[in-house]
Design goal:
Largest sheet: 9 strands, antiparallel
Number of strands: 24
Low-confidence stretches: 2-66, 68-111, 113-137, 693-701
Mean pLDDT: 75
Structural class: alpha/beta
């Protein structure tokens, strides 16, 4: 993983100074140590569409349209509702009532649930378990707006809400912190995702820092006025009594996106934003109808710790932020490494969010093939991050600046191609930002990318691998690199160009389960890869609420055989069999520098190229008679016009996409039971998950 950060003045300074000449970026790298034909209606690839422009970098603190206060538009909303005809189905997620014309089971269930919320009261303080919640320090004062289906939550300074679920958070007054990122009033709403696949998110109230010209009384009046804005009637006295000048007031709204609708449409993923088995067993959920109405379940007890941060963890984050703020001859480049399940991904998200409190953007070089942060698995990429990462990777996939499709979940099969792919991405890095990164590869990356800071995470009492200290780098040999030559007798060691040193941080992970693979649902590595792929292909769904379209209902592009070359990245396949292997499979959509010239039949590559990849697609079918490939992809047509290569890797479609195709009568497309197991090498594929790797088996000696 690589991050690039543009150095800008702090949020309080004038915005005109943010994009001045004094910019520099920081980078962070991470490496995990550890045939159906279609009928009419196909879309043409050669559509004339305006070329996609590179988006400008966005400032974190910027003006936006605040949620419209209730008392300013209630009458207009009622008129609009009265004069409108049929409404599209909207996922209300706890609203007070639904359109009577909707008679679906979903609508009836949501209607019953919303009415139960209203009957239970509109404030958390009316809960019958208030006494127990007060003992636990978990009483949350919130009020539900039944018209706009949203809640206002008042938090005391220092109060923490640890939760499962998803919501859209807007800070109305004060400051709150989520996974290292500070959200303050005047900023845009941010989506929060806290699924059971990762540790729960926490919202921490940091209080309010009013200007010196404003006293506490003025701050109190301002905070109460903000609360009143968002309700049609006067809020209860109990809620208003909890508001003071140091309070934080946040607006929570249900979060309903094409991604969440697509994931929860599968029965296996219906509780992807619910509680895990441990939280259910320990009854960690806090009864709060207002928070539940917006999709949030508060936690208590041992399950409500959120991210457990050790002392060495805090010191490393603090030192790296200081390094970014300091003056360096060259840009700080940070490498983060560690054993499997040592917390590298979480550390990187926390570090990026902390950097984004002070910078406009971060460039991130993705080096982990199996557990990618912004792309589907099997990709190496360079990404520009301008928004905080407030959820696991599958909730914030995005189009990278540059990407190479490696096609496998690890690099052991071809380490040279892996390193050359990273080098090709590194050429697009300007060297003005912070960075974070099997041992020999790490040594190579430290030398090739001139790393200035190394963060090595570990767990338990014994180190998982040798410490990457500056002394080790002076003598260790990498996969491609060698130790630097010592200085001559007439040359000063400090001035020797090949000798470079770095600052080393050893971080001890102390969270529960450190060093052990996830055993609960949605925590295994293969499940996380499937979630990333499902998230990527959810972009094919309509942005509006409605029925989910299965794979066979998506209109593909028609691509002539002579227009693209086809290759396999992970093994050798006879040219006559490549199309059989690629059909109904994921392919990388790549751009070769040379022009592809076919002579009627398919063009097959003899070697795997290292080239730009613009996204992934599904080769839905091959028409040999007409010489066409049928391709389904979320990549825009203007970008597809430059694609002239399809690379097949061992990254496969999630089985759920094939086995759960709704609206099909008879046999499912791409699924067959008419198969002979008498053929040599044929048979069912058995995958055994949850087995301990040899390196993690404890010896009895």
């Amino acid at each position: 993983m690589t991050m690039k950060v543009h150095k800008v003045p702090s949020r309080s300074q004038n915005s005109t100074k943010r994009h001045g000449k004094n910019k520099w970026r920081k980078k962070i790298h991470r490496l995990d140590s550890s045939l159906l034909n279609t009928g009419p209606g196909t879309a043409k690839l050669e559509q004339q569409i305006t070329k996609k422009e590179k988006p400008e970098l966005k400032r974190l603190k910027k003006s936006y349209t605040k949620p419209i206060p209730e008392n300013s538009c209630a009458e207009e909303k009622r008129k609009e509702k009265a004069t409108s005809g049929t409404f599209a189905h909207v996922h209300t997620n706890g609203g007070t009532e639904l359109d009577d014309s909707s008679s679906s089971v979903d609508s009836q269930e949501w209607s019953e649930y919303a009415n139960s919320v209203l009957k239970n009261g509109m404030e958390s303080s009316t809960s019958p378990k208030t006494d127990q919640m007060e003992e636990d320090g978990l009483q949350f004062h919130a009020h539900f707006d039944r018209i706009h289906n949203r809640a206002v939550l008042v938090m005391k300074q220092g109060q923490v809400l640890c939760f499962r679920g998803k919501c859209l958070l807007t800070c109305l007054y004060g400051h709150v912190e989520v996974l290292g990122f500070t959200i303050e009033e005047g900023q845009q709403p941010y989506p929060l995702f806290s699924p059971p696949s990762h540790c729960p998110l926490t919202i921490t109230a940091l209080g309010n820092n009013p200007p010196s010209s404003k006293n506490k009384k003025e701050g109190l009046l301002e905070a109460k006025a903000i609360v009143r804005k968002y309700f049609s009637s006067e809020p209860s006295k109990k809620l208003m009594s909890e508001v003071d000048s140091d309070s934080c007031v946040v607006l929570l709204e249900p979060l309903d996106t094409p991604l969440t609708r697509f994931l929860t449409s599968f029965s296996e993923l219906s509780e992807i934003f619910g509680l895990n088995s441990k939280e259910l067993k320990s009854q960690a959920a806090v009864y709060n109808p207002v928070l539940s109405a917006v999709g949030v379940t508060a936690l208590r007890g041992p399950c409500a710790q959120g991210l457990v941060v050790s002392r060495s963890y805090r010191e490393a984050i603090s030192s790296l932020l200081s390094a970014w703020a300091g003056e360096f001859v060259r840009c700080p480049i940070i490498l983060v490494c560690g054993g499997k399940s040592s917390g590298k991904s979480t550390f990187n998200r926390h570090l990026m969010n902390s950097l984004l409190n002070h910078t406009a953007s971060v460039e991130y070089l993705e080096c982990d093939l199996g557990q990618t942060e912004f792309t589907p698995p099997g990709c190496l990429s360079l990404n520009t991050v301008t928004e905080p990462l407030l959820g696991p990777p599958f909730t914030h996939l995005r189009d990278p600046e540059h990407m190479v499709y490696y096609g496998q979940a690890d690099c052991q099969a071809d380490i040279d191609r892996y390193l050359e792919s990273l080098k090709s991405l590194w050429r697009h890095v300007s060297g003005e930002s912070p960075f974070s990164f099997e041992f020999l590869i790490l040594i190579d990356l430290i030398r090739l990318f001139s790393v200035t800071h190394v963060v090595q995470l570990s767990f338990g009492n014994a180190p998982q691998c040798q410490l990457l200290t500056p002394d080790l780098l002076r003598t260790a040999r990498g996969w491609q690199t060698h130790p630097p030559t010592p200085p001559t007798l007439t040359e000063e060691p400090a001035s020797h160009p090949s000798i470079r040193s770095h600052v080393f941080f050893s971080v001890q992970s102390e969270f529960e389960g450190a060093g052990t693979s996830g055993v609960m649902q949605h925590q295994r590595s293969n499940e996380l890869r499937d979630l990333a792929l499902l998230s990527y292909f959810s972009q094919l769904q309509s942005p509006e609420p409605g029925p989910i379209r299965p794979l066979h209902c998506l209109i593909p592009y028609q691509v002539p055989h002579s227009a693209v070359a086809v290759g396999v990245t992970h093994c050798e396949v006879a040219p006559n069999n490549i199309l059989y292997a690629a059909n109904a499979s994921i392919v990388g959509l790549c751009c070769l520098s040379e022009k592809v010239m076919g002579r009627g039949g398919p063009v097959v590559l003899s070697q795997t190229p290292i080239c730009q990849c613009v996204g992934l697609g599904v080769l839905r079918g091959v028409d040999m008679a007409r010489g066409l490939y049928f391709l389904v992809t979320p990549v825009s047509p203007s970008v597809l016009r430059h694609v002239n290569c399809l690379l097949l890797g061992e990254i496969t479609l999630p089985k759920i996409l094939l086995t759960k195709q709704h609206g099909v009568e008879g046999d499912l497309p791409y699924i067959t039971t008419d198969y002979s197991f008498e053929v040599q090498g044929a048979g069912k594929l058995h995958i055994y998950k949850g087995l301990t790797r040899p390196g993690f088996i404890k010896s009895n000696n």
